[in-house]
């Protein structure tokens, strides 16, 4: 079941403060772009689809709302990428799943996964990255979501 996601809906639907777990941001970068992540030198991100894995153990609502905002203090790796990439979908999995487990599952499901930035989103764990690039575009995303058993949340309108 898909749930419409907007700032207003985030306050009123199942994404209340008590709902916690792991989320995936499905991002689209419209053109090749050199992006600096934090104080690191700029690296080239190819146009296409990126999947970012994050955790929201303080609650989905606050974390997803933060990602949807354009005007925010840049703190996490993903904040820098979101200055240029658009969030196309949000996938959620409630419970005690963790982002490292999901990253391992992604590496097992995706044939030859591309991690464009070493330690992106994973500087506090042993994972190579929590960001994956999907060169073939959006085909196969539904199958991937179903294999990972995440729920898709639709985004209403543009990012705020």
Would you kindly provide a written description of the structure presented here, covering whatever features stand out?
29% of the residues are buried. Residues 6-12 have low confidence and may be disordered. It contains five helices and eight strands; from the N terminus they run βαββββααβαβαβ. The strands form two sheets. It has a six-stranded mixed sheet with strand order 1-8-6-2-5-7. A two-stranded antiparallel ribbon has the order 3-4. The protein has helices at 7-12, 60-68, 77-81, 99-109, 141-148; strands at residues 3-5, 21-29, 33-35, 43-45, 48-56, 86-94, 131-134, 151-155. With 160 residues, the chain is α+β, with helices and mostly antiparallel strands. 24% of the residues lie in helices and 28% in strands. It starts with a strand and ends in a 5-residue tail after the last strand. It has one domain.
Largest sheet: 6 strands, mixed
Distance between the termini: 24 Å
Number of continuous helical runs: 5
What order do the strands of the largest sheet run in, or round the barrel if closed? 1-8-6-2-5-7
The topology string of helices and strands comes to EHEEEEHHEHEHE
Given the helix and strand composition, which structural class is it?
alpha+beta
Q: Calculate the mean pLDDT score and round it.
A: 82
Number of strands: 8
Helix content: 10-25%
User: What's the alpha carbon Rg, rounded to whole Å?
Assistant: 15 Å
- Unreliable stretches (pLDDT < 50, length at least 5) are 6-12
The oligomerization state is single chain
Number of domains: 1
The proportion of strand residues reads: 25-35%
Shape: globular
